[in-house]
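ECF transporter S component
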Amino acid sequence: MNRSQKTQKLTLAAFFVAIEILMAVTPIGFIPVGAINITTMHLPVILSGIVLGPGFGAMTGFIFGLSSMLKATFQPGITSFCFSPFITIGGVHGNFASILIAFGPRMFLGAFSGVLYRWIRKHHGSVVKAASISAAVNTLLHTLLVMGLIWVFFGTQYANAAGITVGAVILAVLASNGILEIILAAAVIPALARALNPQMERMGIAS
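Predicted structure tokens:
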């Protein structure tokens, strides 16, 4: 990859980061529903991983995690201690595990989106098929990782704060907004990936 292609790739990466930040500071990024948030912020993270690769996907995921921690810190809800080490709710303190929950699943989302997309693309299918499967699978994994880590580190505290067990929340998330997020990702990401692929080929950075 020559210097011009590297510059174009970094420019596109900056664009994805800017979109992520814009979504974080507007209502379209996090939509609160009770103790949980429906989010659209996974979309630029997945697309970044697919278009630019796992490393850039993880970077965009870092911005997702940072925005999640900052939102929990400055606009706290009843379970914000799960995402911010600076928040105490009902005597429960956020800690290092809060940082892991905020950042870990989001960076994994971006990185594994790129890995899975490239594997499917190489062995089994078209841009649309690979992007659709990667988007759906990684959206589901992201939800399971976030809620699973909350279960591990804050299970009892979360249950007391939310008035419902983490296991019940996981089922509720998967049955409601989790399904919506998966459908949204599986519909939007392939269309965007297909639209961007010719440009990526011209730039010499197509996957």
